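Let us begin with a simple case.
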Amino acid sequence: MEFDENAQLDTSQINDIRDQGGSGGGTFGASGAGGGPSMGTVMGASMISRLFGGGIGGLIAVGLLFFILNSCSHANDAKTQAQAPTNGVQNIASTCITGADANTKPDCRIVAAVNSTQAYWSKALAGSKTPYYQAPTVFFRGSVKTACGPATAAVGPFYCPGDQKVYIDLGFFDQLRRDFGAKGGPFAETYVIAHEYGHHVQHIVGYDKLVGRDRSGPKSGSVRLELQADCFAGVWARNAVATGFVKTITQADIEDGLNAASVIGDDRIMQTAGQRVNPEKFTHGSSAQRQRWLTTGFTTGDPNKCDTWNTNQL
């Protein structure tokens, strides 16, 4: 994956609070160095998964922490405009200026991915009954406070509907490769970001309200929500070049994205955790399902083809 060297990056869409360390975090314990998670982390992950299950990170955290699988509780449906970030933006504003920076610096790559994803959805939803409005991405390290509650880095990337922000500790991508065997690569990382912004689109349009109490199972509302977000990520990828931020996405990039989708399927996570695969506990979809819907989005480039709510062929 290559970004357009001349693209101008907009770091105002990023709230970088990594320089605050763990001071912005909550009460959850941290994983013990070289060992398993502390009891505080286990209890925290259980709570967080109920709050944040609508995202890739919730599944990863739960898979690592004894596979406590639950789903997202969308605590706040207010459709207020997300506030502009104010903390720490200078940290990346001076280093992430153009697409050339995105091609060489991991932080800037995520900035470019956020810019491109939001540019696509702003255009795709223009003129609709539910026009797109921007949501900032928060870079944090260690722990963070959100409108959905406090979270630790173990949660991974997530979208909080309460404050309509995407949160990510960039160390997650190392974890994805180290603990789950993902190939990695720039597109795998941008797929994760596009998936979380898919949840923001769902919140704007109102798809997240369809989940109701149907929180687990192979055809549950939670699974449908996650697979649709995967499909939306694929749709963005198909249209990414047209946003002006992305220069090329190759077939090899798509393979990296499909690999990332496969390692975070419910069945793969259960197997990795040494658990029996139990579809009744699915909250995000199987590896095959996640790959299929990402492919559907990329192949069609049409968000209307991402209707996971009116099909039995998940």
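The second case is a distinct protein. As before, the sequence precedes its structure tokens.
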Amino acid sequence: MLGITLQQLEIFLTVVHCQSMSHAAKELFLSQPAVSNWISKLEDALGTKLFIRTHKGIILTPEGVRLYAELDPVYQRFRVSLEQVLRNNMKNEKKGLNIECFHEPAIMETMRSITSLFKERFLELKVYCELYNSQELREKLICNELDVIFTFSFEVDGNSELSCRKLRDLDPYFLLPSSWDIPSSRDYRILREKTLLLEVNKGLDIFLSICKAHGFKPAKIKYVSSLLLIFYMIAEGEGFTIAGPHIPVNDYYNNKIDILPISDDAYKQKIHMVAAWRKGEDKPLVKRYISLS
């Protein structure tokens, strides 16, 4: 065993989120030397540097980026599950809604906007917003663990147990390593030798049709646990993906990933953002929330 504690991992993730050890210390109610010491112990246990310290602050190393990309989704699911257990055991808990979305930036922003509007109108209600991957979204909604989810249309289309409302179109882009140096003519056939990286697993036909419209079929398809890890793998030259144009605000990614638009006629089936709920849902709060979407 490496002897790494959950506290160390939480400190690491908080430092990354805050982009500062001093800000993370305030967030965690610790001293800055204590945070720095815990990070050093974590680096010693892993045998690698996670941050580069500069006079301007801290920068994640490639090893730090990969650890964060793999660890954060796992930690967030653990945290949400723990909060759910605590909520289930709280006495006199106020009524509320459990809302969840796929962690694509445009989808997350829409969920936050609708939720903020709902909270303004119903101040006494609690809304729990959570993030999961696409398969967990559907399963938790169907099993009545969630009230509303925001996701891609192809994730819920054809599901007889769910109703959904189209919110907006989502325009896809090719995200690929800058090192691949796509010709100025944008001859995408170079991608026939490359690996397509995906997190979702129900939209494969749509993604393959986009590739086909550009004259190639990827050599391999690999499913990855999080979008952040996909961004890291693209930056490292391990594959490409089809996604929205938003990537993390981080020079490590931005300088190594090219974002190329896909024309509307390159695929027949549009990808939509949708809000979904259980068919026949009779909760008044859910109906009020959906009416705002």
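Residues 10 and 122 are 33 Å apart (CA to CA). The chain has a mean pLDDT of 81.
Keep these points in mind for the review questions at the end of the chapter.
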